[in-house]
Amino acid sequence: MGSPNSEKLQPIAGYREIHHDASGRLEDNFDGRIINPIAHYNDDELSRDVEDFYRHEILRQSPEHRIQDPIDRSRLGLFQKAARIARNPQNTNNITELTEEDKAALRQEKEHILRQPWKLWLTLITCSCGALVQGWSQTGINGANTAWGDDLQLTKEKTARDWLFGLVNAAPYLAAGLIGCLFIDPLNDGLKLGRRGTIFVAAIFSLFAAIGCAVSQIWYQLLVSRLLLGIGMGLKASTIPIFESPRWYIKHGQLLSAFQSAHALRGNELLAARDIYLLFKQIQVEEDYLIRYQNSGLRYNLEGSQVVVRKSSYFRRVSELITLGRIRRATLASVIVMLSQQLCGINIISFYSSNFFLAVTVKDKNAPAFAELRKALLFSFGTGLTNFIFTFPAIRTIDKLGRRKLLLYTFPNMAWLLLAIGFSYESKGGRSLPLVGTFTIIFVAVYSLGGGPVPFTYSAEAFPLSHREVGMGAAVATNLFFAGLLGLMYPRMNTKLGSAKTLGIFCALCMIAFFLVFFFVPETSQCSLEDLDFRFGVLTKKHVRHQKDTIQWYSKSKVKRGEKPSLYFMDQPIHVVESGNWDMGGGSGYDPRGVEGLQDDVSGRGSMSSQRVYEAGGYANGPPDDVSRTSSVHEIVYEIGEGRPADQSADWYIRPGEIGESKGLKI
User: Fold this and answer.
1) CB 3.0–4.6 Å: which of 6, 145, 181, 494 could bond 234 by disulfide?
2) Are strands 582-583 and 588-589 parallel, antiparallel or unpaired?
């Protein structure tokens, strides 16, 4: 066998066009391709791009750069190495520049997810404190619900009392949904307070409103205090889930600060450099999309890369939640998951669990007056403790199983548990409280695994960086506003229908939430925030059609199922092969054996052009005329030095060059 010419060929134009049109795929990602924006660069192009990035984006913010034009070759080399990892993160073995320390950092990133720098843990703990305050704000009135109506002179007339009692409970959520959440974008970007400043404002509202609640002497003072509390809740609930410092710096053109922040949080310069460079390239795709599809008033700065997002007005960004396809689909999915959290009925328990359990407590004339209330409060405490404990398993499963799957697993189970709680209300002979308490605690445990942690996580990552504040604000506003409606209406519903029928209604709503998630909510796990652009680029009708195909696939027997339908596929780096002629024993031509690690099942096929490109995931200029594209094409990727899997022999094609009538070679 001869040896190939050492000259490398350039990637074919068709593959480049896929990446040049990446912004178009955010509007309509017709084939579900998840694009890595640097996968099509060869080594020289990647090196030049990284040097431009380093010179114009990193150094321009450095104080030393204002005096002279230094190029720190060691630091530049760090970014060059990081970019090669980012180009093909699944195959870093061929990067000879990686040290043992680099390889250990890459392994630790995947294998030891909890082994993180102390600054990252400090950030997480600080954000958790915000979540603790949020939880207290939401349920702090729960225990007081058994007494404050009489203590604060609420009217005795039954209908008015039900509505006013519900209004005071619902007040923070209504204020958060209608006021607090809507100010997250103006405070973050308009007043330039940033994430920390906005959280500080939220903390001020939460502190003084809590004091106001404690010193209230009449019900309308409590109402006003809880309305102010809601403004802080809305700001806090919308901001804390998107506390991502490096991205905020990139959004405002401060790349050096972004790198320094990422280094502090990552604890490793190589990982920080990789994240910042790839993040910068992915955000460029988002910016191109905004300019291309909405003429949104954004403009490139003098360096020609970073878009100044602040030039787009707040009201324009709000309108783009509906008018831009990629953002509209993120809005739809986020609103559904947030709404589903309220449809599942969890906040009946969060708001009114003390009253909930007190209603089924058997009255004992010989017991102290406080005994019944103490039982109810203990069960109420048990539900809160269960919620806390069962959140910990979700830390692992939310990425391993996926956000969407967790919702689909938990909603049906919550539905039947609501029925069980409702039927338990009808139990006689003192069994109601144990049964209601047991099923309620199981219900809360199931909720904590999916319906609890997923909606806020999902909504925080669904929107592109340019619309993250306004999108998260809209999603949280939906959640809290409907929580307010629930808190307002439940006392009257419970009075008119009774607990069993009311819970039956929420059982039905829980199943509605299940089907909404199944058909309209894409999966977001195992993707970077910017990769999600391409998932949300898939049209909603295509996503719905795919779910119908999935139902049909599951309905078939295992023998007849075939390959499971796939909606997305990860784009892979293009593989450029060498030119040259090979002796294939019986005829001259081009033999791919050994070049990309293909097995020896390719025999002489006649004369072919020596210029070949293996494209992972599809065809350069569409499939050959005499073959049809199959759903499994994108799953076959040949890496250098790897053999072709034995069971993947039918769906990989080599696209010929300019050779007239030849249509393609099927391997």
Assistant:
1) 181
2) antiparallel
What are the helix (H) ranges across 54-157?
73-87, 100-111, 118-139, 148-151
How remote is the C-alpha of 35 from its chain's centroid?
A: 17
Which residues, 6+ apart, have CB-to-CB distance to 102 below 8 Å? 81, 270
Kindly report the pTM of this predicted structure: 0.77
Instruction: Please identify which residue in the block is written with the tokens 């209300």.
Output: 425
Task: Say how many Å lie between the first and final Cα of the chain, rounded.
Answer: 20
Measured distance CA(131)–CA(128) in Å, rounded: 5
DSSP character string of 64-76 = GGGTS----HHHH
Cα dihedral 527, 623, 593, 589 sign: negative
Per residue in 353-369, pLDDT tens? 888 788 777 666 666 66
CB atoms within 10 A of CB 256: 17
Query: CA 252 to CA 262: how far, in whole Å?
Result: 15
Cβ-based neighbour number of residue 3 at 10 Å: 9
CA proximity to 570, closest of 166, 21, 39, 139 = 39
Phi-psi region of 313 (alpha: psi -120 to 50; beta: other; left: phi over 0): beta
Contact 520, 333 (CB under 8 A): yes
Read off the tokens for 118: 């102390």
Question: Higher model confidence: residue 140 or residue 510?
Answer: 510
Tell me the backbone φ, ψ of residue 379, rounded to 5 degrees.
-65, -35
Domain boundaries, the chain: 1-31+553-667, 42-114+254-280, 118-247+309-538
User: Which CATH class name applies to 118-247+309-538?
Assistant: mainly alpha
Question: 66-105, pLDDT tens digit by residue?
Answer: 444 455 677 888 999 999 999 888 778 778 888 889 888 8
Distances (CA, A) of 318 to 4, 187, 298, 321: 57, 15, 15, 5
Query: DSSP 3-state assignment of 559?
Result: helix
